[in-house]
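User: Structure with zinc ion, tokens only please.
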Amino acid sequence: MIQAHELPAVVTRVLAAQPIVDMHTHLYPPSFGSSGPDGLMLWGLDELVTYHYLVAEVFRAVPAPKFPYAQFWAMTKSEQADHIWKQLFVDRTPLSEACRGVVTTLSKLGLDPGVKSLTSHRQWFRERDPNEYVDRVMELANVESITMTNAVFDDNERARWLAGIAPDPRFRGVLRFDPLILDWPTAGKKLAAWGYDVESELTDKTIAEVKRFLNEWCDRVQAIYCAISLPPEFRASEILEKVVLPVCEERNIPFAMMIGSRRGVNPELRDAADTGGLASVEAVTSLCQRFPNNRFFVTMLARENQHELAVAARKFGNLMPFGCWWFLNNPSLIDEITRMRIELLGTSMIPQHSDARVLDQLIYKWDHSRTAIGRVLTEKYADLLAAGWRLTEAEIERDAAQFLKGNFLEFLRG
Ligand code: FIX
Ligand code: ZN
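Assistant:
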């Protein structure tokens, strides 16, 4: 039986020991290219320091036009990293969550985060073998399985799949096709060029052909679910209801909706250009109600949507809220959202995904999330003890396993 004063240590230990199945990342194995401008596997120092979260932050420190966007993008990746390092880590204290993430990652790799120049660290990373480094990072982060985001409308990625990719057991595929739902005229033209017999109207023949396209690609990437990122004003559409959801149902895989991203508010920032906005939870509940044979993973970007989404999940067993996405992946918001979800949903939710874009980020994203989730759990267990529950370590282990792995795998199975 665990006593209240033992909780912080036990919860921390149990969460650290629980291997994670990371349900949403933008990571790739080395087989997708681990170097050069086209390599899809991003890893190492320069990628870590030029993460788009930090690009946005360096333009706060030295704004355009004082430091023109064009000048930044004309620099090599190492030069960009040096600029960011100087501005955010040398001339300023790296207090933001994204900056602290680099500090945590370097420290856990055994590298001094306090250096003035990145040269020696750069050399250390150059000596790493990408394939072995995947194992090293997964071990340090205690991540057991990485879920990719396989963007079928990305020409670089598509070409690699078509050329043939040997499966890497550490990574699992997810089919992602935002343009199909957000921009059918463009997506339809591409499908036609790729040999699918589609027309601009969603005729029966077109529906059948788009289904064929999705099924072929789900097979190719061995998709464990399908996914899309949607703007705040998202509402269900014909193509979603007549094509995407039926394909997911037939394949018995969930559909993940990441709702609330507004793309390109400042295009000069490129990957860092996006922001978020308040979306409609009713658009989600309406789908959950009308498509009871589909399962929906849902994450929302607006803090203001979180309570309504958690309440919606109490009403629909085919709705699984997940993660503290993007601008919500900060300790204060993880604390608030996880607390709210536990109070409303108990253990029946997925508290976090990493959204890592650079392999090494698994180290900090999961370290920081484990800490934030652990603080909430410690308090919730203390409240339960005070209410008269006798808690065992096995129960804490069972909860940690559900939160960090089991709920995701179980929802996949249906
Ligand atoms: O749409 C998404 O999957 C987003 O997570 C990304 O596009 C976004 O850029 C990101 O990396 C957020 O963490
Ligand atoms: Zn993402």
